[in-house]
Specification:
globular, 390 residues, 16 strands, alpha+beta, four-stranded mixed beta sheet
Length: 390
């Protein structure tokens, strides 16, 4: 259970950073009204925004252009408020859009702002910390292979250092936005006689997510380096990270990494905790992570507890066995709706039933991101005694 203690005012205290998280509903992929309200009201100076995660209502597939649409809208909005061109915004703010809000999931943005903690903050050893990094651009033949794994590993270490996180144990969630193969990229590789991990554009999303997740696992010491090679990706499902969440998109050619954890270099009202769901209906794992964040509850959270939950971040995947605890599911056999869309709706419903809210960041496609059919669930929550100090 997390408790709060008063920190004496000092030069060291004034040098601490504070990470604040704001949840903003969106009416459509181009809706940046809530983001602008945050900035224009003075709640969040535009210069302090360091990362934005968004859930858009597209299909989450290769042709999900809602991600690029939302990304462009956010970049243009920040460009205007910062007085910079969009390319300069991208260098300052890491923006990752994840498509797919099936079932009752609600489209929204999570805005992460970083600024000085200020004097007289209330802290309890470690608070929510954030670090970001980007890899170089990948050649098509590098996706889903060791090159992508190694580059992701290095970027995770860089983001941890930026966040002031010295122990992998203090990392609770790593968001990776990674590229996919287009028909043009496949043709380009063929013209150069470069073999690909896969020549399927949709399948390339799985390979890119899988290699990215294994890069996180390698960085955090969750898998040994000698177990990894090109053939491990999307085959060695026994190798996985319990803290990685990777989302592939057409809008970039490199990996963008956001590391969230807890660190003594930060002082805020917020903390993050995580657990691994062993399957899509692992409600006890969600209850455990809530308890870790100081939100123990036997049933659906009451109003007071629910308002302390700032963000819920989870992965969803249809089990490759075609079964959940022995009972058959049809997610892999539905020709009308892709399995990742089924999985997002299923896990989203499980989480919403306990949290009592539907604006949850549930991402599909969990290759090497938790055990087969399961995945990470992370909670960012406000400590009860610090709500006024947020």
């Amino acid at each position: 259970m997390i408790q709060s203690v008063a920190m004496p005012q000092s030069a060291a205290a004034e040098s601490l950073r504070r990470c604040r998280v704001f949840r903003v509903p969106t009416r459509n992929p181009a809706d940046i009204g809530g983001l602008l309200d945050l900035i224009d009201s003075g709640a969040v100076p535009a210069r302090e925004i360091r990362a934005i995660l968004g859930k858009t209502e597209g299909n989450g597939g290769v042709n999900d252009f809602t991600r690029a649409f939302a990304l462009t809208a956010v970049q243009n909005a920040l460009s205007e408020r910062l007085g910079r061109v969009p390319a300069e915004v991208s260098a300052q703010v890491t923006i990752a859009m994840s498509g797919g809000t099936e079932g009752g999931l609600s489209p929204h943005l999570l805005v992460f702002a970083v600024g000085p903690a200020g004097p007289g903050r209330m802290v309890t050893g470690k608070s929510l910390a954030l670090g970001t990094a980007v890899t170089r651009k990948f050649h098509p033949e590098e996706l889903g292979r060791i090159a992508q794994i190694a580059a992701t590993e290095a970027a995770v270490h860089e983001a941890m250092a930026q966040a002031g996180i010295t122990s992998a144990d203090d990392v609770h969630y790593v968001q990776v936005k990674c590229p996919l193969l287009t028909a043009e990229a496949v043709a380009c590789a063929a013209a150069r006689r470069q073999p690909l991990a896969t020549d399927g554009t949709y399948k390339s999303m799985a390979y890119s997510r899988g290699a990215s997740a294994l890069g996180v696992a390698l960085a955090l010491g969750e898998v040994p380096a000698d177990a990894l090679d090109d053939d491990a990706v999307c085959r060695r499902l026994d190798l996985w990270s319990g803290r990685a969440s990777a989302s592939a998109g057409i809008e970039l050619q490199h990996n963008e990494i956001i590391v969230l954890g807890n660190s003594e270099s930060w002082a805020s009202a917020d903390v993050i905790a995580h657990r691994v769901m062993r399957d899509a209906i692992d409600l006890p794992a969600v209850q455990q992570v809530l308890a870790d964040a100081g939100l123990a509850s036997a049933g659906q959270l009451d109003d007071a507890a629910r308002h302390r939950v700032i963000a819920v971040l989870a992965k969803a995947e249809a089990s490759s066995t075609g079964r959940i605890r022995g009972a058959r599911h049809i997610m892999l056999e539905d020709s009308d709706i892709n399995a990742t869309r089924h999985a997002r709706a299923l896990v989203g419903g499980v989480l919403a039933g306990l949290i009592g809210r539907t604006d949850l960041f549930v991402s599909g496609g969990a290759e090497h991101q938790g055990p087969d059919g399961g995945g990470i669930v992370a909670i960012i929550a406000r400590r009860p005694r610090l709500q006024a100090d947020a």
